[in-house]
Amino acid sequence: MRHIIPKTYREALEHLKSGSLHILAGGTDLMVQNRAWSETPVAFKKDTLYVYNLEELRYIEREGDMLHVGALASYDMLERHPDTPSALKRCIALLASPGLRRVATLAGNIGNASPAADGVLVLYALDARVVLDSADATREIPIEEAITGPGRTAFEDGEMIREIRIPLEDFDSERFKKVGGRKADAISKVSFLGAAAFDGDVIKDLRLALGAVNTTVVRRREIEAQYQGLTAADLKARSQEIREAYAPYVRPIDDQRSTATYRRQVALNLIEDYIHSL
Amino acid sequence: MADITFTLNGERITLREEPNLRFLDVLREKLNHTGAKEGCGEGECGACAILLDGHIVNSCLLPLASVDGRDVVTIEGYRMTERYQMLEKAFIEEGAVQCGICTPGMMIAAESMLRENPDPTDEEIRHGLAGNLCRCTGYNMIIAAIRRAAKEGEGLW
How large is the average pLDDT for residues A145-165? Predict the structure, then answer.
């Protein structure tokens, strides 16, 4: 296996022309997935591009109502940055541990495409977009098009994430819930983000997203749209109906962390409970 | 093989090694710095914690390639400092060390937290230690030790 340590982003993009490579940012997923015996090198199954030291991509910048998060901005940087959306900060406070947040990145979580990644759940709820570069092209796609299944993305060989764009919007209500086996360092059994904005008593924006209950994060814009324009009281009266609307999309699995039955019950409870909190 | 240059406990060194070695193994096997321990090897226990550019990271998940150009402090370097002496005294007085395998990581986590927040609440201490497991003490003595070090070592951080 080849190990490529580019000195510049341009050089990294040139190397990506050579085929399918692991792109290692913080490494907190890839290093575990390719773990070998102690005292032996990590057994990557593909040639690996080590991009962690590309400082060009380590930035967070606000431009108007848009936050530009460079691919190498760590969760720790996001946690400290004054313009990071509060919903994302709520999530980061419960994400992994201080040592992992220092190196782990949103871009790495997108590339790894786990339906249980908490940071990615927030990106779905906030309408984030992903900017991909290759040596000779750039494109920008919504987060839900970037991730196509567990461990699968819509990225072509030759592309890598340059930045994530997060629209900055104000919500009157936000709730992040993570259900895991331990407060820190747990991979979610189920995760939930709810956010709502009101105009007086009327809901003008409702967002509900669930993690670890399907092959990708679940966010159903058509369901959310049906309930915009209602008052909070009307919404609460219809909480059971909302719960049922999500039921077909909550299709979790049994694994070492939890069971499908538990996850389904908890996910739908989280939705219903959030509606009642509004 | 790649040439990787970094600062280890204040000394600049260059290694020619496989870039996909775990930094934990480089420390322990190539550089004879055995203070960082391997507990879980998956980033869940914090026994392998080191300071990278002054902040806690898990060296078991850090490929050697990522360390290029950076500043590394391990418990071996940290123990030469006055802050360490204060933490060590507090750990002893509060009975915060039993088997000892988590202790280097706990000290690194404490340093990383205290340098940003020299006067932490118990809740903030717990948050700062969230990535470090201890199977002996039940944590309360460790938290008491850090509280004591922060109080008695006022001005050190």
Answer: 97
Q: Which of A24, A31, A55, A105 to mutate to test the interface with B (most CBs of B within 10 A)?
A: A31
Phi, psi (rounded to 5 degrees) for B87 = -65, -40
- Compute how many other C-beta atoms are within 10 angstroms of the C-beta atom of residue B9: 18
Kindly determine whether residue A102 and residue B57, on different chains, have CB atoms separated by under 8 Å: yes
Q: In CATH, what class is B2-77?
A: alpha beta
Of A65, A159, A174, A183, nearest to A111 by C-alpha is A159
Tokens 């922060």 belong to B150
pLDDT of A182:
83
pLDDT at A183 over 90: no
Q: Supply the pLDDT for residue B50.
A: 98
Q: What is the pLDDT of residue B31?
A: 98
Q: A31 vs B69: CB contact, 8 Å cut-off? A: no
Query: Which residue in the set A28, A48, A98 is minimally distant from B61, CB to CB?
Result: A28
Q: Which residues of A touch B31 (CB under 8 A)?
A: none
pLDDT beyond 90 at B4: yes
Q: What is the mean pLDDT of residues A180-200?
A: 93
User: Hey, how many other C-beta atoms are within 10 angstroms of the C-beta on A229?
Assistant: 12
Interface contact B2-A5, CB threshold 8 A: yes
* B27 close to B33: Cβ distance less than 8 angstroms: yes
Domains and their CATH numbers in chain A = 3-167 (3.30.465.10), 174-277 (3.30.390.50)
Tens of pLDDT, residues A40-49:
999 999 999 9
Distance, in Å, from the CA atom of B126 to the CA atom of B128, rounded to the nearest integer, reads: 5
**Reported pTM:** 0.96
Fold of the CATH domain B81-152: DNA polymerase; domain 1 (1.10.150)
The complex's ipTM?
Answer: 0.96
* Closest residue, chain B, to A100 (C-alpha): B57
**Nearest-by-Cβ selection for A41 from B18, B43, B58:** B18
Contact A109, A119 (CB under 8 A): yes
On whether any CB of chain A is under 8 Å from the CB of B46, the answer is yes
Q: Do A97 and B63 touch (CB under 8 A)?
A: no
Residue A187 — pLDDT band, cuts 50, 70, 90? Answer: very high
Minimal Cα–Cα distance from A185 to chain B, Å?
6
**For chain B, which residues make up each domain, given as ranges?**
2-77, 81-152
